[in-house]
Amino acid sequence: MTTTTPALIADSASSGFRHGTIEQRDLRPDDVRIDVAYAGICHSDIHTVREEWGTAHFPLVTGHEIAGTVAAVGDAVTKYKVGDRVGVGCLVDSCGECEMCRDDHENFCTKGSVGTYNDQGYDGEWTTGGYAQQVVASERFVLGIPEGIELSQAAPLLCAGITTYTPLVRWGAGPGKKVAVVGMGGLGHMGVKIAVALGAEVTVLSQTLSKEEDGRAFGATDYRATSDEQTFKDLRGQFDLILCTVSADLPVDKYLRLLKTFGTFVMVGLPENPQALHFGSLIMGDKVMTGSNIGGIKGTQEMLDFCAEHGIGATVEVISADEVGDAYDKVVGSKVRYRYVIDTSTITPAA
Ligand code: NAP
Ligand code: ZN
């Protein structure tokens, strides 16, 4: 049995989105049905639907930054009740039994975690994301959104928030540490806000100075343009930690030179192409280069609570369903300030 819900559907990598309806499973005992209020547009949605990361499964409904309220719960659900403010991020299932799941790293489930969209659940059904009026997920993957955060500003935390929070905490962003955030889009602006809230001294490295005022308002104490070669001379050897959110090709060695000895460069951006690296950039100064993938469910709840405690939400621009195509182009052109969030009430059942 299934239930029908209006959604924005892509039929191919080049089709854009159309209004339509999709089928969602009726509630299993541990399922929560969510009335989606807002769905953030993550650059990963764009990489996926445009098949920059490989073949996608169409028809496709993207969206893994989902915020709304509980519409219904299955018989065995204990964590949530109808009306609760909740969110869903990038994951909707994992085995729950392996070492990774037991250690709250569901994102690295050895059986394979199930992505919110463009993935097959353990039942073989393809998953569909948050550009829809409802989503269904097991309560294990549903997060509570604290009262202090507006739903529209909370939605992007479910991916951009946790993806920046995880490495900042893991690699010690805090008092006495100098952190650079490279790229100030959806992830980057959350990286700045969270690193500042953790107590670090934050510099933004952006292509131009056009967003400097915003970066400083988010709490950065320095803001430099990477289009200016002088930036790389001035900041050589300055940072304990660099969090890179860039979605495009990057001269990696230049950025590694900005680290202090023993410093760490964390990549969260996932550009389409492989990038070149000169190992000397790591060897000279015992530097660490690593990646980071979203985070587990426990960490995501911790991040939401941290953001509420520190009065942090995403800086968003709420758009209607018909503006999604235009918004995608603006994100790719680095024109987003700083996350587009779809008001899902503007999705209609048919074109
Ligand atoms: P976004 O809003 O488009 O931000 C990316 C930023 O990168 C832009 O705002 C821009 O910053 C910078 N940038 C873009 N093109 C550039 C270029 N040619 N040269 C230098 N800088 C450039 O995207 P997002 O949603 O934050 O996502 C960023 C990346 O992270 C994407 O690749 C996405 O798929 C990936 N991601 C990874 C994870 C994970 O788990 N690791 C999770 C979510 C997303 P400035 O305008 O400030 O220069
Ligand atoms: Zn994302």
From TrEMBL:
UniProt keyword annotations, A-Z: Metal-binding, Oxidoreductase, Zinc
Signal peptide: none
InterPro entries named in the record: ADH-like_C, ADH-like_N, ADH_Zn_CS, CAD-like, ER, GroES-like_sf, NAD(P)-bd_dom_sf
Keyword Cell wall biogenesis/degradation in annotation: no
Molecular function per GO: alcohol dehydrogenase (NADP+) activity; zinc ion binding
Enoyl reductase (ER) domain: residues covered: 12-342
Catalyzed reactions: a primary alcohol + NADP(+) = an aldehyde + NADPH + H(+)
Family: Belongs to the zinc-containing alcohol dehydrogenase family.
Highest taxon in the source lineage: Bacteria
Upper lineage: Bacteria, Bacillati, Actinomycetota, Actinomycetes, Micrococcales
Enzyme class: oxidoreductase
EC number: 1.1.1.2
Swiss-Prot/TrEMBL cofactor(s): Zn(2+)
UniProt protein name: alcohol dehydrogenase (NADP(+))
